[in-house]
Amino acid sequence: MTNHSRQARNSEQGMAIILALFMMLAMTVLGTSLMFVSKTETLSSHNYRLMSQARYGAESGIHTAANYLLSGAYSAAAPGMAASGDPMANYVTTVSPVTYNGAPVVLSWDATASNYPITAVKTAFAAAAQGTLDVKDAPVTYKAHATLKSMRQISDAFTGSLITLQTWDVTAEGSITGARNATVEVSSLIERQTTPVYAYAAFATDNGCAALSFAGGATTNSYDSQAALSSGLPVVGNYGGNVGSNGNLTEVGNTTVVQGSLSTPRQGVGACTANNVTAQTTSGGATVSGGLNQLSQNVTYPTPPAPNPLPPTTATDFKKTTGCPSGYGSVCANSTNGATITPASASSIVTMGNVAVNAGAVLQLNAGIYVMNSLTMNGNSTIKINSGPVVIKVAGVGQSTPITITGQGLVNSTFRPSDLQFIYGGTGEVKLAGGDTTAGLFYAPNATANITGGADLYGAIVVKQLTEAGGAAIHYDRRLQNDALTAGNYMLSAFTWKSY
């Protein structure tokens, strides 16, 4: 071996250890990086858990505050309610937020920070709007406050009493304190809007087959009760006569048509059976011009309370020649072909028994509340509405057909259906027949109803089951979308959150 080779080999001595050191350095860097990434993931996971727990705490604050605002305890003290001691005059409702004493109306977990005129409400809200959740890492504390964004009152179409509608902006903070702290803020709107009682020309609450049954040229359409009359009758349009049901619509005949839509939670068009309730069953060319709207769930109509006290079940006959029956005093006066009843005011109650308006008799009613056990109109009798609203509450004790209207029975010349309202909570039958032209509202969510013989109803009807036949027609008053209102369900909306 030459000296040159030995020298070259000697110059390479130590390279292995250098390479080994570089490899160890690389492995050290890689291991350190993996440890750093692992620690970062662990911290990130821990932070996410803490933020989630804090958010759950904040959501708990939202719900506990909402539970109080939706509770009967708060409703009893709501502004403007009877015996609440909190009149609407306390507030400025034309601005948002609503103000009291020149400042926004606020309820807070800290009662001293609340701006509300009733101390008991401030105290109750403060107790409800704060608390703790027990989680693994540490207790989560939450606290909430609410700002009143809007407020107004409506007259409930069911009871006639005032209902206060409010929109609250509720904000809650959830916090967890420990090795690492986390705080999350959640906000949501709690609101309650109005809903029309009579959103449809006809609604059947039954969820079975033929809940609505139309035949023989039965129709629905719509009109505007505030528009001018033509030849003494409203001008109808072949649209807007929407119907609804929790069950099935059955239509028969090529002149039978719903000039509007059908709304129901049911699906499908075809034969209806107890085990397969379809939305619509048609034959003979019957149609629904506006198609089907599927509802997300059944529509619930509350049963109106029975009159208290109940009316008597004795006969009360109005005849053409005898005028007022005995026992009515100054509210009843004899008039042409019958009698005229004039309550002291629109909120005054006139209690009657089983009322019969006999052939040829004319019974004239002025604004008031009429509590009857039943109402039967015999052929060629007339009930004339002189002023409204006339609200007829029917008890129906011992009566299979507590409401029978025949012939040219009801005269409501304004064609404002709210001027004549029938309210019945029982399960009997409601009959409208014989060419009658009636403008009114019928609310009997547990009853069956028959509209036959060319009878026309201008207004709307809510019953359990409805049969419309023989050329009968329901003309829906489009103004009812903004009249005869009640309070809808409370809703949580506009849900947002942020961390800090």
User: How would a crystallographer describe the biggest sheet?
Assistant: 23 strands, mixed
Ends: how far apart? 77 Å
Number of helices: 4
| CA gyration radius, whole angstroms | 35 Å
Question: Please, what is the average pLDDT?
Answer: 86
Task: State the total count of DSSP E strands.
Answer: 36
Number of domains: 2
Characterize the structure shown.
The protein is an alpha/beta fold. It has 2 domains: 167 residues, no CATH class; 285 residues, no CATH class. It is 16% helix and 39% strand. The protein has 4 helices and 36 strands. It has a 23-stranded mixed β-sheet that branches. Strands 3, 4, 5, 6, 7 and 36 form a 6-stranded antiparallel β-sheet that branches. Strand 20 and strand 21 form a beta hairpin. The longest helix is centred in the N-terminal third of the chain and has 55 residues. 40% of the residues are buried. The model has no long low-confidence stretch (mean pLDDT 86).
